[in-house]
Design goal:
The complex is a heterodimer of chains A (342) and B (330). In chain A, 29% of the residues lie in helices and 24% in strands. Chain A is an alpha/beta fold and 342 residues long. A nine-stranded mixed sheet of chain B has the order 6-7-8-3-9-10-12-11-13, with helices on both faces. The longest helix of chain B has 18 residues. The two termini of chain B are 33 Å apart. The chains are: A alpha/beta (342), B alpha/beta (330). At the A-B interface, α1, α9 and α11 of A face α6, α7, α8 and α9 of B. The structure holds adenosine-5'-triphosphate, adenosine-5'-diphosphate (ADP), iron/sulfur cluster (SF4) (2 copies) and magnesium ion (2 copies). The site of one magnesium ion has 4 residues of chain A, from α2.
């Protein structure tokens, strides 16, 4: 079995070219009371900036509601942009016409959160794979067949002939997720957004799917945004890790640097909360903050983590929003603790 | 008192629970035997569909209608409760002595009734105590699970998922049961709430000396609470081991593969997956149910393996161990 762990993080992205560039991206959702009074905004994504390179995976970790899926859907054009911009291959998405958008969308494969809800129940595997090609103008039958064979082979749904006429309910959870991946690959994208692609699956199937994504990445030099709430899988699967809290990216790091030492108190809490199987765990209590993530409609002033943070600096953390401090070349945290370390 | 001296509170022998379906009986729990000592926590682990929840249902006798087989013995606190009729079981066992926190139960609280009333109600029904006594008891268990007592006056929607789950656990504790069965208590929760909940359960374990059966597919979380680990595969309990050895020295080939597929945050290891899928529980293979996926299979594996008792107290259902321990024939 190829090792996910030892090969990947050392390997540099083969091309140092940003496929995706996100600048100061905000997505707010307006909340209305009784249909028309504006009650406020849910600041689901509140200022994200980063670049994603070809052949590289960035893992985005954070708890439910912190804005991970909102980030994904905003990049995909499913959500509107409140403020900020997105560049794909150096092209500003806001300048694209309808055709340009179509081209852009066909360059991003999307693997969504729930494999069971992702597949239309009344379509066969064949139809499910043809559909995106029809929509995106791959009309040549021979070309369609070639691509269907290729993606099914790549996701190992074999023998292919057995699977083509099947309906989703006839597939196991793992097979369904492989079909979702096949569908994401059929337009030969440059980038994949995988939103919790394995969280509904058993441990063994998780590994199988993650290794599959990794093999696809190598073969096609794919850029991957891997969204997860499960910290234990990220080391095997990403070059960089970003942590999100309350609509903001609060830590950015190479995988190696983060595993050595998380900087932000929230990321440190996520580490502490993650259990590796170990008989010693029985003897200790976990040192994790109480409380809940903040409301995104009325987020706390200053650092959004301050009401739960034991290291909170009074008069600073509860007043001013911490900027990103680059403590190491490959490691930044949006936390006042590091204001003097840059 | 060493653990060996602790009294056995639950002794399950040859337990079977089959469900009737059009395609034939589903052998969800098939000939499962194990013992659990007072004050210990047993974690039952295994892939989705291997029979974990069904085992819990069989022990709690919370059965759906389509049962085709329900046999074996369950000795609880010295009594074979399989012999009790439903009325006696309900009166003496369920709730009073064996409480349960079912899968996804944090969403089962009634949204329009205040938490306190929902917790007090079953105490009034099952125990002969006054409303005032019931409220005192409820306040006690609320404190044990680390919830502020004034939250009792709130409605479920005013509590986060983690708090609701703690309220459900408080409810299960209220009758002071000897055994508590928790089915995936933390799977629906966020990481930090999960960790907080495991802290709470650990504290309950220390303070009350309750015995737990913890059902989970997450072995990392299981290790926070488990004294023993039981591995289920396709309706069979293929290994039962002290947690002390299990994570590093699992015996059954399936347990070993399962452990090899668990990603770890702190250790860099080679992750492996198990090719193929578990067999259908309708007409499963007559031999070892793992055989199709097992790299170590040999001729004998076409027969159902006996249970072997190993020297360290573990039991394992695999022909590889026939020579290494004491065999109990099926
Ligand atoms: N009432 C029922 N009728 C028929 N089959 C059933 C019934 N309840 C459960 N099963 C089947 O019994 C098997 C074991 O199910 P069970 O719910 O015990 O699995 P589990 O290990 O708890 O899985 P999970 O981890 O997904 O909760 C499965 O094949 C399931 O489909
Ligand atoms: N379409 C929407 N309208 C209003 N609020 C939304 C919408 N989508 C997401 N949100 C809110 O934005 C926040 C972040 O959600 P999401 O991005 O789905 O989080 P995650 O994927 O990290 O769990 C949540 O408070 C959620 O309720
Ligand atoms: S900025 Fe202040 S409150 Fe926020 S995480 Fe850092 S120390 Fe804690
Ligand atoms: S009995 Fe045979 S097939 Fe089954 S786990 Fe043991 S070696 Fe493998
Ligand atoms: Mg999400
Ligand atoms: Mg279950």
């Amino acid at each position: 079995m190829p090792s996910l762990a030892r090969t990947l993080p050392e390997e540099q992205p083969t091309q140092q070219k940003a496929v995706l560039r996100v600048e100061d991206l905000h997505t707010w959702f307006e909340v209305r009371r009784m249909g028309f009074f504006k009650a406020g905004d849910v600041r689901a994504l509140d200022g994200a900036s980063f670049e994603l390179y070809a052949g590289e995976t960035i893992s985005i970790v954070g708890e439910s509601g912190c804005g991970k899926s909102t980030l994904a859907k905003t990049i995909l054009g499913i959500n509107h942009i409140t403020k900020g911009s997105i560049f794909f291959d150096d092209e500003d998405l806001s300048t694209l016409d309808k055709e340009g958008w179509k081209r852009y969308r066909s360059n991003i494969g999307y693997i969504q959160q729930d494999p069971y809800g992702a597949l239309p129940p009344f379509m066969t595997v064949k139809r499910i794979l043809e559909e995106p090609m029809k929509i995106n103008g791959v009309r040549d039958k021979a070309e369609q067949t070639r691509r269907i064979r290729q993606v099914l082979e790549e996701v190992k749904l074999a023998p292919i002939e057995d699977f083509l006429p099947k309906f989703p309910h006839m597939l196991s959870g793992g097979q369904q997720q492989r079909l979702v991946i096949a569908r994401a690959m059929v337009l030969e994208p440059k980038m994949l957004i995988a939103d919790e692609p394995v969280s509904m699956l058993d441990a063994s199937v998780r590994v199988e799917i993650l290794q599959l994504l990794q093999a696809l990445q190598r073969r096609h030099n794919l850029a991957i945004l891997y969204i997860t709430h499960d910290l234990s899988t990220v080391r095997y699967f990403s070059e960089r890790i970003f942590a999100m809290y309350g609509g903001k990216i609060i830590e950015k790091s190479s995988t190696a640097a983060l595993l050595e030492q998380p900087l932000h108190p929230y990321t440190a809490a996520l580490f502490e909360a993650t259990s590796d199987p170990d008989a010693e765990n029985l003897k200790t209590f976990k040192d994790v903050p109480a409380g809940e993530p903040p409301s995104l409609m009325n987020p706390p002033p200053g650092c959004r983590f301050h009401p739960r943070c034991r290291k909170m600096i009074k008069g600073l953390c509860d007043v001013q929003i911490p900027p990103e401090f680059w403590v190491q070349e490959d490691h930044a945290a949006a936390c006042w603790l590091y204001k003097d370390e840059v | 008192m060493s653990t060996r001296d602790k009294k056995i509170v639950l002794d399950v022998q040859n337990l079977k629970l089959y469900f009737r379906t059009q395609a034939g009986p589903v052998q969800a729990v098939d000939d499962v035997s194990f013992q659990l000592r007072a004050g210990h926590t047993l974690a039952v682990v295994g892939e989705s569909g291997c029979g974990k929840t069904s085992l819990a249902k069989a022990i709690l006798r919370l059965l759906p209608r389509n049962i085709s087989t329900y046999t074996g013995s369950i000795i609880f606190d010295g009594q074979d409760i399989m012999k009790y009729d439903d009325e006696k079981f309900r009166r003496e066992i369920r709730w009073h002595n064996i409480a349960s926190v079912p899968q996804a139960s944090m969403n089962s609280l009634n949204p329009v009734i205040r938490i306190e009333d929902q917790l007090v109600e079953p105490l009034l029904i099952h125990e002969r105590i006054s409303r005032q006594q019931a409220r005192t008891r409820v306040a006690e268990v609320f404190e044990i699970v680390g919830l502020p007592v004034d939250f009792l006056q709130r409605y479920p929607f005013e509590l986060s998922g983690g708090m609701r789950q703690r309220a459900i656990i408080a409810m299960a504790l209220a009758s002071n049961p000897k055994l508590i069965v928790l089915d995936e208590p933390s799977s629906a929760l966020d990481l930090l709430s999960q960790a907080n909940l495991m802290n709470v359960l650990k504290r309950v374990k220390q303070q009350t000396d309750a015995t737990f059966i913890l059902i989970t597919h997450d072995i990392g979380t299981a290790s926070e609470l488990a004294d023993e680990i039981a591995v289920m595969y396709a309706g069979k309990m293929v290994e039962y081991s002290s947690a002390q050895y299990f994570y590093t020295d699992a015996h059954h080939p399936y347990s070993q593969k399962l452990m090899a597929s668990v990603p770890t945050l702190r250790e860099d290891k080679e992750l492996e997956f198990i090719p193929g899928q578990p067999p259908s529980l309708i007409n499963p293979p007559t031999g070892c149910r793992f055989a199709e996926r097992c790299e170590k299979r040999f001729e004998k594996c076409s027969m159902q393996p006996d249970t072997t008792y190993l020297e360290n107290g573990s039991t394992v259902q695999c022909w590889l161990f026939e020579e290494t321990g004491e065999v109990k024939h099926a």
